[in-house]
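Quick note —
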Amino acid sequence: MTQTITKHVADLVAEAEREIETLGVDQAIALHGDSAVVFVDLRDIRELDREGRVPGAFHCPRGMLEFWIDPASPYHKPVFAQDKKFVFFCAAGARSALSTLTAKRMGLAPVAHVGGGFGAWKKAGGPIEIKV
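Predicted structure written out below.
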């Protein structure tokens, strides 16, 4: 039997973006370095090593997000217990839109994501660290 997918990833991302705050890359760059903001990089470690990193961003692999946010989880990370704004980003903005909606639904607040992701950040001249 062939599967019939009735909702596509583009639909899920569009729905998420209607419910979350999306920061333009210039807004996100302006927030970088603000002690009241935690940037959360959802990309795979191979992406970080290949493309570079946003200085000071906390790396949270997308597959661990819910477990690291939840204080009842044995995998909880204290960074998510801080009284700060969490700005999620990925390579292009789709994973971070979905992640931001998930974090919001879990009760993490305030949350936002970077529209266009790391690609837009890099193109706009945002600060980047390259691993050597």
